[in-house]
Amino acid sequence: MSSAEPARIPVTRGVRDVGLINAVICAVGARGIRAPEFHLFNALARSRSTMWTYLPFAGSLLYWGRLPKRDTELVILRVGHLRQSEYELQQHRRLARSRGLDNQTQARIFEGPDAEGLTDRQRALIRATDEFITDRTVSDDTWSQLSEHLNNHQLIEFCFLAGHYDMVAATLNTLRVPLDFPD
Fold first, then answer.
1. Using 50, 70 and 90 to split pLDDT, how confident is the model at 1?
2. What is the C-alpha R_g of the chain?
3. Is the pLDDT of residue 163 over 90?
4. Averaged pLDDT, 132-139
5. Measured between alpha carbons, how far is 161 from 59 in angstroms, rounded to an integer?
6. DSSP string for residues in 62-106
7. Which residues contact 131 (CB under 8 A, 6 or more apart)?
């Protein structure tokens, strides 16, 4: 989203707008990302029931999933790149660094599955993410490559992770949610 474009949904965390519980969640979320506001939460909190169902699902994928955290962030970064979600990239570039994906590795992720210096596992994850997002499925060849690195539980989780962050990117871009950080 360009900073010149106004948000389509006000991104307030005022108690009157989002309710007491959601206002607390927004404030705690902002503290967690070390920002004055967590605009994604602020926007989603306008739909109270959506917020309450979204958080456990998103949290299960991001924090408690069976995929290694580095793999989770690789997939999220690739989805953000493919969907041109500046918000998603800003949030997850920071988180990815804390999970072991340095700036050089992130640049390779953005370059694509044929970038030099990627592991076979990273190539398989990037290729599968590309196909999942652009084709809405994963080819047999790519699935076979991905299956060499992930078990059945992780394969299912991969699909939900890529699909979830595709939905988040589309929502962020459509609602024109402002960035949380000035960079």
1. very low
2. 17
3. yes
4. 98
5. 11
6. HTS-SS-HHHHHHHHHHHHHHTT-HHHHHHHHHHHHHTT--HHHH
7. 137, 138, 139, 142
Higher pLDDT, 21 or 145: 145
HSE-up (13 A, CA, CB side) for residue 102:
3
For residues 44 and 51, give the distance between their C-alpha atoms in angstroms, rounded to a whole number.
6
pLDDT digits (tens, 9 = 90+) for 45-88: 888 888 889 999 999 999 999 999 999 999 999 999 999 999 99
Token pair of 81 as six digits: 């790149």
Kindly write down the DSSP assignment for every residue of 47-59, as one continuous string. SHHHHHHHHHHHH
How much is the pLDDT for 2?
A: 43
Cα 145 from Cα 132, distance rounded (Å): 14
Neighbours of 63 (CB within 10 A): 9
> What backbone phi and psi angles, to 5 degrees, belong to 74?
-60, -50
The separation between CA 33 and the C-alpha centre of its own chain, rounded to angstroms, equals: 14
Nearest to 171 by CA among 46, 30, 44, 57: 44
